[in-house]
Amino acid sequence: MNKIFLGLIILAILSACHKKKIIKTVTAPEYKQESNKRKTRKLIRAKDADFSYLNCKSKIEFSDGVDNFNANANIRVRKDSIIWISITATLGIEALRCLITKDSVYIINKLQKEYYCYSYQSLKKRFNFNFDYNFLQSVIFGNAPYVVLEQDSSYDCLDTTFTNTRQIRNEIKVENYIKNSTLKLHKLDIYNVMTNDNISIIYDNFQRLDLDTFFGFINKISLNYQNRNGFQSFYLGLEHQKVETGMLDLKFPFNVKQKFERKE
Questions:
Q1: Which of 61, 62, 191, 218 could form a disulfide with 204 if both were Cys (CB 3.0 to 4.6 A apart)?
Q2: What residues have CB less than 8 Å from 252, skipping those under 6 apart?
Q3: Where are the domains of the chain?
Q4: What distance in Å separates the CA atoms of residue 94 and residue 11, rounded to the nearest whole number?
Q5: Which phi and psi angles does 116 have, rounded to 5°?
Q6: What CATH number was assigned to the domain covering residues 2-22+39-248?
Q7: Residue 157 and residue 161: Cα distance in Å, rounded?
Q8: Peptide bond before residue 98 is cis, with ω within 30 degrees of 0
Q9: What's the CA gap between 150 and 201, in Å, rounded?
Q10: Residues 205-238 as b or e (16 or more Cβ within 10 Å = b)
């Protein structure tokens, strides 16, 4: 179960617990390659979703190239404070519960009667990516994780459907593909140019939650990173079945039983 934990901590959503057929290859929307004919224009910023509370009932798929899993998830978010995730396996049995705070990530594996605690610094060392709470919240909300600055650049894609806003943050290169008609982020590519580690996130099936907010009901997240065993790959597919926002009466229960063993 360790490799499942590690991949899903990074992706902010956990998976378990029964094997399934190989997940279909992830295909991105049609984004044209860069051309010398593309012109720089005014910086384009994606329109962020802004929720005080978010409650999602979702289906998830997970693959690491060897094992493939399918489960249901309940995801709750209190903005800038808590991300809470409950994973339900076969027969409606809760398998995993995750609590993500501004400081740490906590996981209870109820099936194995064990729990995990991770600091963001330990995750950074393990995966060569500088993750924090704000990044993980942005992934769930479908928002650009890095603020657009004046030194960044925007380019029209050749078909003019999307604009690519490029960002360089030290050794990190970020490509934001923003749909011109909605100003919503549809694809995010993050590369570490020193290690070749990368994350790709695709948002699809946008639905209107209110007059001002579109929300992607399908997320496809791919992570490739290098460790002592070589390059490792994870894929997480997330399809929301129901999404609620606003001042919701949400609870975030998280209690570790004394008989559960702490794991690293």
A1: 218
A2: 76, 78, 82, 84, 99
A3: 2-22+39-248
A4: 20
A5: -135, 145
A6: 2.50.20.10
A7: 7
A8: no
A9: 24
A10: ebeebeeebbbbbebbbbbebeeeeeebebbbbb
pLDDT of 15 over the 90 cut: no
pLDDT in tens, 34-54: 444 455 567 888 999 888 999
Give the C-alpha distances (Å, rounded to integers) separating 239 from 31, 104, 180, 205. Answer: 22, 26, 24, 9
Written as six digits, the tokens of 34 are: 């860069």
Residue 119 · residue 111 · CB < 8 Å: no
SS3 of 223-249 = EEEEECCEEEEEEEEEEEEEEEECCCC
Q: Which pLDDT score is estimated for 127?
A: 65
Bridge-partner residues for 18, per DSSP? 70
From CA 96, how far away is CA 85, in angstroms rounded?
A: 8
Q: What is the pLDDT at residue 17?
A: 29
| pLDDT tens digits for range 164-179 | 999 998 888 999 999 9
Q: What is the mean pLDDT of the chain?
A: 80
- Arithmetic mean of pLDDT, 91-118: 90
HSE value, Cβ hemisphere, 13 Å, CA-based, for 75: 30
